[in-house]
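Design request, tokens follow.
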């Protein structure tokens, strides 16, 4: 895809040429032995806090730039990044684990723009999905899946990434909810991260809302469907792909022990007409998101839930407008048929 307005990935760390907020504070920090700061302080903070600390002074910036710190943070936030394949891919990012974290932690805000969104050139030949599911902060599922994107079958078929085989079931310690009321706690207790990685372009993007946007229990089987979502700009003002939803569905069923089993974890891309996109169209949109700007990572779950509600509203409006247009066309067809019938009758009477 030529004509990309993509900017190089920005690391979460501040520039080393920063001016300290307070010289006395900077001097007091400098008096602490670096090993104490690096071993006993910086190893206990999360990614956003470490990034903020690196902006305080050039001394902290140097300490917070250690690759081992960011590697441990990525492993803690996303256990799937411990796989040898991902460790190798992340090591090739411009600033290693810190670049990966700055891509994967915040919301994707503004997709990159291209002169022609239908172009096929420079699309990623492979996508890697790194998925982690937590229940009450405990890891219950983690997997890395590689998806080849160059085959004709992938480009023409509906885009769908499945993590489990049809007969595969992952046991969990989540109690099976007996009623709709008891399954509502899952909205707060379950978290999911689905990071899509372009190993060639060295970019990553988290497609999950972190918290579920909906939790539904089947009235007959008792199975529970937990949905996560992110809305990405697809381009084309007024088109069905102006906004698309990256939808992650986790399907769980009860077991004989009264606990739930994970039976399905899948990703699809849906436009505003409710149509799931094929592989090529989905890949174009995902590439735009991967190369787009990122947010600050604040209130990620709330932001994605708001995007989901707005997307559903846009879908409803488009459906209503379509039904109105079809109703108008039906009325015109009926009127034309009545007029034609009346004209034929009048013609026969006047003969």
């Amino acid at each position: 895809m030529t004509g990309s307005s993509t900017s190089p990935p920005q690391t979460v760390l501040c520039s080393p040429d920063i001016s300290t907020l307070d010289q006395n504070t900077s001097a007091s920090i400098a008096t602490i032995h670096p090993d104490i700061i690096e071993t006993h302080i910086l190893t206990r903070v999360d990614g956003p806090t470490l990034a903020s600390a690196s902006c305080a002074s050039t001394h902290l910036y140097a300490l917070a730039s250690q690759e081992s710190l960011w590697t441990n943070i990525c492993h803690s936030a996303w256990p799937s990044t411990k796989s040898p394949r991902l460790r190798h891919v992340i090591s090739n990012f411009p600033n290693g684990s810190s670049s990966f974290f700055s891509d994967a932690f915040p919301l994707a805000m503004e997709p990159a723009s291209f002169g022609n969104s239908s172009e096929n050139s420079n699309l990623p030949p492979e996508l890697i999905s790194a998925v982690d599911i937590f229940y009450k902060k405990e890891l219950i599922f983690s997997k890395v899946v590689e998806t080849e994107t160059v085959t004709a079958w992938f480009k023409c078929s509906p885009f769908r990434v499945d993590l489990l085989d049809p007969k595969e079931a992952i046991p969990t310690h989540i109690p099976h909810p007996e009623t709709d009321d008891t399954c509502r706690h899952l909205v707060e207790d379950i978290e999911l991260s689905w990071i899509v990685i372009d190993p060639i372009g060295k970019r990553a993007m988290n497609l999950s809302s972190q918290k579920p946007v909906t939790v539904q229990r089947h009235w007959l089987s008792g199975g529970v469907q937990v949905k996560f979502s992110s809305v990405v700009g697809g381009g084309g003002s007024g088109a069905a792909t102006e906004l698309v939803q990256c939808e992650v569905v986790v399907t769980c069923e009860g077991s004989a022990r009264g606990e739930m089993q994970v039976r399905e974890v899948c990703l699809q891309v849906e436009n505003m007409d409710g149509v799931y996109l094929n592989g090529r169209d989905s890949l174009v949109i995902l590439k735009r998101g991967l190369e787009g700007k990122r947010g600050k990572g604040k209130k990620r779950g709330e932001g994605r839930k708001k995007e989901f509600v707005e997307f559903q509203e846009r879908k409803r409006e488009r459906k209503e407008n379509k039904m109105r247009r079809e109703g108008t066309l039906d009325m015109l067809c009926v009127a034309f048929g009545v007029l034609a019938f009346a004209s034929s009758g009048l013609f026969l009477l006047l003969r």
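Comment from the thread starter after seeing the answer: thanks! The two ends are 67 Å apart (CA to CA).
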